[in-house]
Amino acid sequence: MIWNTNTSKLDVVIPAEYITETELNAKGYLTSIPAEYITETELNAKGYLTSIPAEYTTESELATNNYTKTQIDTNIYTKTQIDTNHYTKTYIDTNHYTKTYIDTNNYTKTQVQGLAGTNMTWNSTSNKFDAAATEA
Fold first, then answer.
1. pTM
2. What is d(CA 61, CA 53) in angstroms, rounded to the nearest whole number?
């Protein structure tokens, strides 16, 4: 501020390196956050990634290791394919038997062979038991 002897008042002097509001608005810079934008605080609260975790593979790493887009596209399932064609853990947990249940409530190949006698053999080609007819 400078004392103006002509007006007997303090004059406000804006340094040349400062920009006026009119000049700022003319440049088109944002002066507030539009409603459709998300703030860093909101982004962090939603848990979205803001950087690539170390265990993720980047596009440059794929290129460095000679993986092509075609190889990835033909050998990797998309989320839609997985959602459409694969069961979820919840579905499997509620609709399928566990290994423990099967191990305690089903016969092994050896147990079945013992129950059926010598006329039954395991066919490893067809993955089933072959039973020979017993002569009476």
1. 0.21
2. 13
